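Hi R.,

Here's the input for the cytidine-5'-monophosphate complex you asked about:
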Amino acid sequence: MRITLGVTGGVAAYKAAELVRLLQQDGFTVEVVMTRGAREFVTPLTFAALSGQKVITDLFEKSAAGEANLESAIEHIAVAQRTDLLLVAPATADALAKFARGIADDFLTTLYLAATAPVIVAPAMNVNMWNHAATQENIETLRARGVKIVNPDEGYLACGMTGAGRLAGQQEIITAVRETLRTQKDLENETILITAGPTCEDLDPVRYLTNRSSGKMGYAVAGAAARRGAKVVLVSGPVHLETPAGVERIAVRSAEQMRGAVAERLARSTIAIFAAAVADYRPAELQTEKMKRNGAPLTLRLEPTPDILAEAAQTKGDRLIVGFAAETDHVADNARKKLAAKNADLIVANNVTAEGAGFDYDTNIVTLFSRDGRDLALPKLTKSDVAQRILDEVLRLRGVLRTKTESHRSAV
Ligand code: C5P
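And here is the predicted structure with cytidine-5'-monophosphate in place:
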């Protein structure tokens, strides 16, 4: 993931250098943008050396002939598009005021307006400047707009005064970044088995039965879980997707193969998430030769495939089981029934007929039905955000179920 670090002009600008290092250690690519003021305190070379990237300083970078070029004139848009997060640390009172008002008179302030990625600001300034009504109003404006504020610490300030205004600690800023980008390692102790994609049930050497599953939802869950520190095994039917970083993928084709792979890896998993659209039926006989066309009607005899989720839930122990329900009607009723019938802990239900939900979309509209009775209806979100919310709910449920077991044990 890519973070743009905006450095503005304050004594604390030197602390941003250490931030670059810490963010890189967390696996982020860091691109630095410096304001003119920042360059009075630290040179761009320091950040270029640390980040290994060109440091952006001017809205209109001049060529050797002294002319601004088109590439640099639109670079703020390119940077805005490629960044996953804009972090401004330290943020001066001036930068906050410009952000709040939408003034765009340099690269950083222009980038702030052009970026759609989340924004975090870590202010640092003199205590009176920080406490000034103008600054506090700007902070409130930004907060209301969804900007995350990492409040300054109290302490001795470079100007000789004592009070609030010192740039927050590096760890506090890093935590804010992780929380915002959902890279908190809160699944570090989990091994998650995930099924994804469709299955293909062969009829003969060239024909098969399948469905429209793209695998996007399951892959999003796998990627999100790996980023949150889980060990992830992804049992995947045939899809055109890249395996997310840090995920072990086991490629399968049929429901039977998926069942085999799940059976082999289930015992070692602490959570199992069944996002695959497993074919419900398969041809009763597999023809070894290509079936010939003879003009007469053809009847295929199909037999049911095993319910992989239901089988896995029979021996679940402490393992948390998550299922998906793609419905076209009576979503809540069907989902609750499925939760009970399959002995699952959480069902992610969606109405596949809704606009922007289900197969092949990058967005999804789901409701999470939990074993403890909670229904959580989510708005239309990207599949990656849905994945995060599913994992949040899994962790919440894990806590609830553990507490219940513990109180039950102590009662006995
Ligand atoms: O019963 P239904 O097919 O709607 O259940 C969907 C859920 O069950 C999904 O989580 C799906 O991955 C899982 N499933 C399975 N094996 C099957 C059918 C469904 O694991 N044969």
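One thing worth noting: The first helix runs from residue 15 to 25.

Cheers,
M.
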